[in-house]
Each structure stands twice: as C-alpha cells, then as structure tokens.
Design goal:
This protein is α/β, with parallel strands linked by helices and 266 residues long. The strands form 3 sheets. It has a 4-stranded parallel beta sheet. Strands 4-5-9-8 form a 4-stranded mixed beta sheet. The chain is globular, with a radius of gyration of 17 Å.
C-alpha cells in the first residue's frame, strides 16, 4: 500500500531563513505547486492525502476545490503554518469540514512537531501523522519511536516511512538529494518490511526555487531538483510502484487497514 501525502501550506519557508516575503507571493508559489501535484496525480489516476492549512484553503479556493472534487483525502495541517495553539486542533478540523462538506479524520502538525495526543483525541481526530521516526539534528530525535502505526491515547499514530534498521527518512528532502533509483530502492525495502509506504511532499517543492535566488537564498539541497525536476521525481515514483502492481491509497485507508490489527493488540 502506497500512501502519498502532501502538506499544503502557505510558502513560509523563507521566514525560517530570515527572509520576508509578501503573503500574496507565498500563496502564488504554493498554488502553482499544488496544481502541479494535482495534475500529476490526475494523469496517473492516483488518490492521495492532502494535509491543508485553513489559511491556504481560505486563500486558494480553486486549488482547495480541486483537492476535494478530485477525490483526495482532506486532512488538517492546522490553522496556519507559522503559529499554533491547542484550540487550533479542533478549529481547523471544523473549518475544513465547513469549507469542504467532507469529514476530516487526520492531522499533521507543521514541521512534524510533537502534539499532545490527549488534545488530538479531544479535537475529534482518528489519526495523527506527525511522527518522523528518525533523528534529524536540530529538529527531533524519534529514533526509539515505532516505525509502524500504533495506538497512543486514543489516536492512531501513523508515522511517515523510514528504512528498516538505519531509519533513513524517506521524506521530501531525500527525494531531492538522492538519485531516483536509490530513493526508490530504499522505499522498496521499507515497503517489503512494513507492507506500506507513507511519505510526504510540499507544494513549493514543485516550483522552481532556483528562480527565486534574487529574492531569497535557500539551501542548495532544498532547491535541488525543485520545480520540473520534482514533478518528474513524483511521476517516476508513481510509475515505479505501479510497475510492481502496488496499490495507492489514502492515509485514512491505511488507518482502516490497521484498525482491526491494533484493536486486537490493545
């Protein structure tokens, strides 16, 4: 089971590197990337999970409508990508449900930061996918956390995928810096071990970040293969798994698959 997911947010990455960017420009970049993602998935006939901030949904109505109308799973990425309060958990779910007319079952915290699981359950979520079970200097050390779905305080935790043993993260940045064949081989090993892959990307990766060098200077590893290069990487990844007969599903589908297994283990 292949679960592609996308964190759909306003492009606030420049702020992490000390640059200011007008909100309209942030949204222009993220809207562009979201459409590239949706076009690629539509071409391949693949459904995915979109973790969307309310801020994006309210300022990109056409792209938000595409996510919903094209049959993808809508999940919450909070109210905004730059700030958080516990009240945002429930508020973001209710607002996304109001805007889409669809239930929202899942949540992913901005920058994969830790959230209180009791608050997550109280806010009405069935699953959370904010755990990257690896060590990333300056971010988090989750090397001892489970690599596969598990129950915690009434909410199913669905970690993003890492390789067995070494726990090399198979997230967006790995896809930028590794040759596609190596990335796909590592993903194959995780799939064989765990029975599923859960990985994620952002819309701004599908914008040519090298074209912004006069505005902002982002690290080379982030700019590498951005824009058309990232579209091809995603397209090739889908083709790779399709050639092996793998099924593409939403994270909510993965939740339902593991529900009986984890209930039995409780």
């Amino acid at each position: 089971m292949i679960c592609l997911s996308f964190d759909i947010e306003e492009f606030d990455l420049p702020q992490e590197h000390g640059y200011d960017m007008p909100f309209e420009r942030m949204m222009e970049i993220s809207r562009h990337g979201t459409n590239v993602i949706l076009d690629t998935l539509q071409k391949q006939g693949v459904k995915a999970t979109f973790f969307v901030t309310v801020n994006f949904a309210e300022h990109a109505s056409a792209e938000f409508a595409r996510i919903v109308n094209e049959g993808h799973e809508l999940a919450s990425h909070g109210m905004t990508h730059t700030g958080f309060s516990p009240e945002d958990l429930k508020a973001s779910r209710l607002r996304l449900e109001q805007l889409s007319g669809n239930p929202v079952h899942g949540y992913r915290m901005a920058r994969m930061m830790k959230v209180d699981e009791h608050a997550m359950a109280d806010a009405g979520y069935l699953y959370e996918s904010s755990l990257n079970p690896t060590f990333i200097p300056g971010r988090y050390n989750n090397f001892a956390k489970p690599r596969v779905p598990f129950w915690q305080d009434g909410v199913m935790q669905i970690p993003v995928s890492v390789t067995p043993l070494t726990r090399f993260p198979l997230f967006w940045l790995a896809a930028h810096v590794l040759p596609s064949g190596i990335y796909q081989s590592m993903a194959d090993r995780a799939l064989k071990k765990d029975g599923h892959i859960c990985t994620y990307f952002h819309p701004w990766e599908f914008y040519d970040l090298n074209s912004l060098v006069d505005e902002i200077k982002l690290p080379g590893m982030i700019r590498r293969n951005s824009g058309e290069g990232m579209r091809k990487i995603l397209d090739d990844l889908i083709i790779h798994f399709k050639s092996k007969g793998e099924e593409f599903s939403t994270i909510f589908d993965l939740y339902k698959k593991h529900l009986k297994i984890l209930d039995t283990e409780k």
